[in-house]
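Same chain as my last thread, 279 residues:
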Amino acid sequence: MTVPTTTLPSDDELPVVGKGTYELEGETVQEPVEMALDVGYTHIDTAEGYMNEPSLGEVLADHDRDELFLTSKVLAKHLNYESVIEAAKTTLEDLQTDYLDLYLIHWPNPAISVRETMDAMATLEEQELVRNVGVSNFDLYQLSAAQHVTDVPIAVNQIEFHPYLQRPELVEYCQENDIVVEAAAPLARTEVLDDPVIEELAEEYDRTPAQIVLRWAVEKDVVVLPRSTSRKHIEQNFDLFDFELEADDHARIDDLDRDEPVYDDRARSWDDDVWGMAE
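reply #2:
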């Protein structure tokens, strides 16, 4: 199956369905990714903070690098200039590759200048270690500020996005500025799957609830990164392109928006070591 792609500012093509690897630490990442690659996924999303890049690299080494689209993310505590460069080089070594297709700031960190971070991203791009740069978990204010301090196109904003958290103003801003929206937790970490509306639509279309939710997002021009570990679900989450939702059914899912996150609560403790600000 050929998966549709969306074009980044660099003219690189980003597959609209990717394999998420969150909470697949160490060797637990290997079997699900092997299955995904066998099914036909070519877009793999990881992060320094997922603690799986060395194990993932062992899998990817057996596949044609030119056929893959690899994304990683730098931890919020590593956003000063030298640390970004060092983190990227470690990721490349761990993934056994010479370049990343996309490198993201995993979380904004108010203790470190976004200008400094974006300068490091520009250097990585100039050195051809990274083909595209972007951000993750940036709100509209943070995103517009990052755009203002760099000439490097911000290709992607990976955010929490699902029927219960649709963030229309942020999505609209991204799409108007040629920034691809990627949905982290596109299934709200399974919370939306037993919603009565989703269950009813799944029955009507003879699809799984996950397929309904993922198809809805793709039809909104949002790239989805479902994290599944069973082959059955990995196959189903990839099988989205031989049906379309009717406009009225699309609207029914739109009406589920609660502005309710499952992880990005926007008011967080800064004591976690991920931020590098704990005393």
